[in-house]
Amino acid sequence: xxxxxxxxxxxxxxxxxxxxxxxxxxxxxxxxxxxxxxxxxxxxxxxxxxxxxxxxxxxxxxxxxxxxxxxxxxxxxxxxxxxxxxxxxxxxxxxxxxxxxxxxxxxxxxxxxxxxxxxxxxxxxxxxxxxxxxxxxxxxxxxxxxxxxxxxxxxxxxxxxxxxxxxxxxxxxxxxxxxxxxxxxxxxxxxxxxxxxxxxxxxxxxxxxxxxxxxxxxxxxxxxxxxxxxxxxxxxxxxxxxxxxxxxxxxxxxxxxxxxxxxxxxxxxxxxxxxxxxxxxxxxxxxxxxxxxxxxxxxxxxxxxxxxxxxxxxxxxxxxxxxxxxxxxxxxxxxxxxxxxxxxxxxxxxxxxxxxxxxxxxxxxxxxxxxxxxxxxxxxxxxxxxxxxxxxxxxxxxxxxxxxxxxxxxxxxxxxxxxxxxxxxxxxxxxx
Length: 432
Hints:
With 432 residues, this protein is of the alpha+beta class. It contains 18 helices and nine strands. A hairpin with a 2-residue loop joins strand 2 and strand 3. Helix 8 runs antiparallel to helix 11, helix 8 packs antiparallel against helix 15 and helix 17 packs antiparallel against helix 18. The chain is elongated, with a radius of gyration of 25 Å. The two termini are 21 Å apart.
């Protein structure tokens, strides 16, 4: 078992571990009495550290629970009807845990929303309305939401637990992925998006870390309906929401960056950014800072993927170009169209390599790399401009400056974002 060095450190374990376990609420009264009985009979040790190790070996406690209890931190291990089993990860919106339903025994994932967000009544009200829509989603390529509630100051969402990894984790472990695999993953993600869009939900934060792949190779969209939690109050400043900018800027669409109203086509642009990143191992828009990359996105000039990976088949480049079109009118118009296009590439000639299939599917004179929409002059009426529209929370200042002078705006706000990054936005302690 893994009792961490931190648990064995300077702070001595609590003298009565059983009392700490009782306070945590992770075990039932019957389980506690059974443990006490075995301790009195000499079957279990009285020493807290040895007892914790014994309970983990017998799968009564998890390693995560034992380490928390040995540090005398029982709070937060029980959330309503759910018992926390392990920590999965964390982000700008909160922390995610593996948990189990007390009665049903179903293993789930619970996202505990950051207290700074949970304390915003306006955002919480919008979140509750959004959860009613999310609860209706039922698709194999969408992480299902089982429950959402607020207990005191704790706002949480209960979701399907996916035994696997995010595509960000896969990319970090393996490097640039095989184009055939990426086409499969993005096609599945597009199917999930099509279902969400048909139900009236725009994701607004598509990126590899929000695409989970299970051990069965099924891709599922994560965090649908949670975009409302990223939105700061109307009166919040750019600096106080820099965590939101950092978390999304490399995948957001030009219209989202400029504050235009977004629809499903914005998600498709983000899906294209994710596809580009997974195939090449690099972001489509390079720069030394988020604000520089944002400026290039608004200018509509991504780095041609064949400069990074020359072996990419022409049809993959064509799909990427259309997904990354700066003008919404030049992109695929629905996620279903994206899924069908990618699935057709995979299914045309299954006995041959995907590269051969892609190259054969389009005559060489029908497509020349570099003539895609993003390399051409934007249509003036569809060029992303923020004039006359409500600026989105954190980027209103950017949008206003862009309207006057795009690249001088980049220089003007670079200092401000640098200060924001240095200061950081501390999410707050969650159950530690």
